Amino acid sequence: MGIVAIENLCKVYQLGSLELLALRDLDLSIEQGEYVAIMGPSGSGKSTLLNMIGCLDTPTSGTYQLGGEDVSKLDDDELSIIRGSRIGFVFQSYNLIAQLNVTENIEVPMYYQGCSERASAQRAKELGKMVGLGDRLEHRPSELSGGQQQRVAIARALANDPLIILADEPTGNLDSESGAEILKILVDLHEQGKTLIIVTHDKGIAASAGRVVELLDGQIERQEYNYRR
């Protein structure tokens, strides 16, 4: 069984008297240490699947096991614990806290897990240096470029040593040079053994993945390995 194991997953959204079937009988297994890119046209179910894998939403039917634990029936509080301890998120819009500096932003997930101030500050500084921001640790988001802000977001995603890293269009707001730098950091993390799942429309990003999963109308239309070859 993979670190992510999804079986017969369906998600139905109720829109007034209408029902929207966003995911239908979807099966997906992702092994520990894999790098998977999820692609598909608008409305294909990418965002819904990301929300399911990230425990931001629950399925209408079917099962989802993360690290061997069935998380598909957990309540909101239980899902919040899973998100904080097992999943690292990297968003297109960075989602940093404007009032906090780089170190403090990286510390946030550790604060919610009850880490000591001393230990979390030390780890945050180490992660900040690891993503190339050793000379920016006291800067606030407004004093950083977009690429630097995304580096902070990646460091924050690593704070609690998650089982999986989820990245939603991580280079979508960046110029090509900054985007390439962010992609290199993510690929390096994968090569260090991290399980990486990226939702993207960018074929260049998908080409760096070990597997590409293409969605259409809420189902997996196609999967390809070694896409870049």
Topology (SSEs and partners):
Elements: E1 4-15, E2 18-30, E3 35-39, H1 46-53, E4 61-66, E5 69-70, H2 76-86, E6 87-90, H3 102-112, H4 117-130, H5 146-157, E7 164-168, H6 176-191, E8 195-199, H7 203-206, E9 211-216, E10 219-225
Parallel strand pairs: 3-8, 3-9, 6-7, 7-8
Antiparallel strand pairs: 1-2, 1-4, 4-5, 9-10
Description of the molecule:
- The chain has one domain: Rossmann fold (3-Layer(aba) Sandwich).
- With 229 residues, it is α/β, with parallel strands linked by helices.
- The protein is globular.
- The chain has a 6-stranded mixed sheet, with helices on both faces.
- It has helices at residues 46-53, 76-86, 102-112, 117-130, 146-157, 176-191, 203-206, and strands at residues 4-15, 18-30, 35-39, 61-66, 69-70, 87-90, 164-168, 195-199, 211-216, 219-225.
- Helix 6 (176-191) links the parallel strand 7 (164-168) and strand 8 (195-199).
CATH topology: Rossmann fold
Placed side by side, the strands forming the largest sheet appear as: 6-7-8-3-9-10
Number of helices: 7
Strand content: 25-35%
Q: What is the H/E order?
A: EEEHEEHEHHHEHEHEE
Classified in CATH, the superfamily is P-loop containing nucleotide triphosphate hydrolases
What is the structural class? Answer: alpha/beta
Spans of at least 5 consecutive residues whose pLDDT stays below 50 are none
Mean pLDDT: 94
Give the class-level CATH name: Alpha Beta
CATH architecture: 3-Layer(aba) Sandwich
Radius of gyration: 18 Å
Total E-strand runs: 10
Calculate the terminal CA-CA distance, rounded to whole Å: 27 Å
Q: Main sheet, how many strands, which sense, barrel? A: 6 strands, mixed
Number of domains: 1
Oligomeric state of this protein: single chain
**Fraction of helical residues:** 25-40%
Principal-axis shape: globular
